[in-house]
Amino acid sequence: MNDRQSRQIFDALDSFKIELPSWGFADTGTRFGKFFQPASAIDLEDKLHDAGLVNKLTAACPTVAVHVLWDFKAGVDPKQTAKIAKKHGVKIGAINPNVFQDQLYKLGSFCSPNAKARDLAMRHTLDSVAIGKAVGSNLLSMWLADGTNYPGQDSIRARWQLLVAAFKKVHDAMPKGMTLLVEYKPFEPAFYHTDIQDWGAAYLLAKHSGKNARVLVDTGHHLQGCNIEQIVTLLLHENMLGGFHFNDRKYADDDLTLSSIDPYAVFRIFDQIAQYTFDTGKDPKLAYMIDQSHNLKPKLEAMVQTVTMAQDLFAKAAIVDRKALASAQKAGDIVAGERCLRDAFETDVRPVVAKWRKGKGIAGDPIIALRKSGVIAQLGAERTAKRKALGMVQGGSYA
Known about the structure:
The chain is of the alpha/beta class. The chain is built from 15 helices and 12 strands. Strands 6-8-10-11-12 form a 5-stranded parallel sheet. It has a 3-stranded parallel sheet with strand order 1-4-5. A two-stranded antiparallel sheet has the order 2-3. The relative contact order is 0.14. The mean pLDDT is 96.
């Protein structure tokens, strides 16, 4: 690797920040059950502590996404949460309302035929906007489980009208500088139709909501074979891409560590973002976020693993020879064009990335540093004792 490529990687990593999910550090599981970990976070302070540790190990994770229902207690000033985050070297990032867990949401939230459910969803979401304002967040991330399981269960058109009106109201209630991120998912838990089923629906909903709404692309929320980088490119071109939830999946679930199944797919997404910047000279200012909850891998290790893989793949995309690629495309040289991408993807960037980390005063291999520290075993002992003192059973709520 030459000096120019090394500088490109250093510049890329300096700009690359990826947000951690608070729920990724707590005991979670599948719909069938949980496998508990002694070192899992018990409360929000534990989650912020663990996020701060990952940030220290990677120099890339200054913010933490929070789930309002799981992370904030009624009557507690949200600003106290911001202070706890600061103590652990991080800030509160995206605010995630929860409009899918309450029993009233059986038939949906904003799209429900039940007016009480719609009212509850709106009150909770507006409360979430207020929390975001209090903690200095500039992102409101919305995912709905709304949909139907059977033809004739409800009016698809009427549900869309309710959805558009609700999101417009939420958008207009946000403070200046806050962005509404609209996430989509083709199925689950709804299996006949999902109200925000794909990037097109999310795009339309964001456009109807207002100028501060964008689409959120979750890398696991697509049908098999979907060309995600094409979606990314089109949304970038239309100035409608807001950010990502990063994970991986083999079939239909989406909580695997990033690139554990298909690293080239993630690289191709980063490549299109780098190409957009090369073509336009603009930084799209995307929100890179992780959405994972690990049932088997140690939670801290899984998060560090995802962040380091993201850094490696982002670095690879930074060294694509854009001029050679453009020449090959202009000449119709398909093989040469593909080789430009493959050459970058197959380059071992780890030594340069390790050098970048050492320049930040951290270990070149964060996973090895984490394992050598013994912190997971230490936290396991401390938190086991803490649960015992509190009279808690291991686990509890989802997050």
